[in-house]
Amino acid sequence: MTATARRRVTAWARLAAGVVLLALAVAGIHATTTRAGGPAARVWTHNVRRGLNASALFYTELGDVREFLDARGGRYGGGE
């Protein structure tokens, strides 16, 4: 194996090891954390307290989006 090929293999191995370590770190944090923080936690808490169903599944059940568009302007909300 030439020196260039060895460097290339080493570079790819280091990249793969870094990606694996990053994935393990994210999985570890996810497994040990019981709550979200920051703005995501505030939005989640707000929605739960008010009984809002604001999941991604909710937005998939809206149906035909053309019902929400203004016929003339093409914008949401039935503009003036």
Task: Kindly list the characteristics that best describe this protein.
80 residues, elongated, 0% strand, mainly alpha
The gist of it:
With 80 residues, the protein is an all-alpha fold.
Cα(first) to Cα(last) distance is 72 Å
Spatial extent as radius of gyration:
24 Å
* Overall geometric form: elongated
Mean pLDDT over the full residue set? 81
Number of strand elements = 0
Structural class: mainly alpha
Q: Could you give the order of the helices and strands?
A: HHH
Strand portion: under 5%
Q: Total domains, how many?
A: 2
Main beta sheet, described? Answer: none
Helix content: 55-70%
Which spans of ≥5 residues are poorly predicted at pLDDT below 50?
none
Distinct helical segment count: 3
Task: Give an overview of the whole structure.
There is one protein chain. The protein has helices spanning 3-32, 39-50, 56-60. It has 80 residues and is mostly helical. It has two domains: 1-34; 35-80, no CATH class. The chain is elongated. The mean pLDDT is 81.
Please outline the helices and strands.
Blueprint: H1 3-32, H2 39-50, H3 56-60
